[in-house]
Amino acid sequence: WYRIEWYVKWESTVGANDGVIRWWVNGVLNGDYRNVPFPAIKGFIEFQKAPTLHNPPPTEQYMYFDHTRVSTP
Predict the structure, then answer these.
(1) What sign has the CA pseudo-torsion 70, 6, 72, 40?
(2) Which of 19, 36, 40, 62 is the most exposed place for a label (fewest CB within 10 A)?
(3) Cα-based torsion angle of the residue sequence 33, 37, 42, 44 in order, rounded to the nearest 10 degrees
């Protein structure tokens, strides 16, 4: 199992380019972007999990997800 955490903070105003995206894998920070532009909408419209494999997968393969949480302040 892996623990993946993702933090997103929308821009303070449209065009401010001060949005934040950070993510951790097993408690280790893997990405930290603090000048992210976002669309003019305020927040998420949709949440998806769409993992991508770079190598051709075997004929039969399974991926399990557990304990998904989406939170707001």
Answers:
(1) negative
(2) 62
(3) -60
pLDDT of the chain along its 73 residues, tens only? 889 999 999 999 888 999 999 999 999 999 999 999 988 887 778 888 877 777 777 777 778 888 888 887 7
DSSP-assigned states of every residue in 7-70: EEE--SSTT---EEEEEEETTEEEEEEEEE---SSSS-S--------SSPPPSS----------
The predicted model scores a pTM of: 0.72
CA–CA separation, 44 and 72 (whole Å): 11
